[in-house]
Design brief:
Order of helices and strands: HHHHHHHHHHHHHHH
Radius of gyration: 19 Å
Number of domains: 2
Helix content: over 70%
Number of helices: 15
Structural class: mainly alpha
Distance between the termini: 42 Å
Strand content: under 5%
Shape: globular
Largest sheet: none
Number of strands: 0
């Protein structure tokens, strides 16, 4: 399972790094590698509806059950691991503690991202309810992105044309930006692949730190 999550992380980096080449020449591969909203909107005009929805849906929903299972298996330790490895999500996770008991289904449907899916598992949300909310939320997200893309198709067509004309300088720039992002994460103590590889060990350390220590 961890190996699959690492594959998703690496694929996202590759998709971002090769955006300028893939978005017009291999748009389906582009969203299969990284289906963040920006990429979906850029590629939508290059794809028929079936390809866009099928590949986009599978890529978006792919990591979600795995993060749910991590939360289910490791409980509160998984939440604190996420807070430690991704501090920007710390506030979100703490806010979820206030919302989740009253609105599990809407929270997952509105924001079925990695931290929310992990929290859903740790909070004991039922598998069926989680998947139903996740599927509906992901489908609605794709519909909204495609509607946005259709509404601004002229502007996005011009943007894709610019990217195609300057694909090689933009390729060098995007590779440099991805490398800088990875370097910045490492400098800040966060490494997505390394964090996943060491997840069990780090959760054990977190749980050990929370145990009461003998004073004598």
């Amino acid at each position: 399972m961890v190996g699959t999550l690492i594959t998703f992380v690496v694929a996202s980096y590759v998709g971002n790094a090769f955006l300028s080449v893939l978005v017009t020449e291999r748009p389906l591969l582009f969203i299969a590698l990284n289906a963040q909203n920006r990429n979906l909107a850029l590629a939508a005009g290059e794809l028929d509806a079936w390809s866009f929805y099928l590949v986009g849906f599978l890529r978006l929903i792919g990591p979600d059950p795995l993060f749910f299972l991590l939360g289910r298996w490791y409980g509160d330790g998984a939440i604190r691991w996420m807070e430690r490895t991704a501090p920007t999500y710390g506030g979100l996770l703490r806010q979820l503690e206030q919302w989740f008991d009253k609105a599990q289904l809407p929270v997952v449907a509105i924001a079925p991202n990695n931290p929310v899916c992990l929290f859903a598992g740790a909070a004991g949300m039922g598998w069926g309810a989680f998947m139903a909310a996740n599927v509906v939320g992901t489908a609605v997200r794709l519909v909204l992105v495609r509607m946005f893309s259709a509404l601004f198709e002229n502007q996005l067509t011009s943007l894709r044309g610019f990217i195609a004309d300057y694909r090689w300088p933009l390729l060098a720039l995007s590779i440099a930006m991805v490398a800088f992002t990875i370097w910045g994460d490492r400098k800040g103590g966060r490494e997505d692949v390394e964090d996943l590889l060491r997840i069990e060990e780090e959760i054990q350390e977190i749980e050990a730190e929370s145990l009461p220590h003998d004073e004598g």
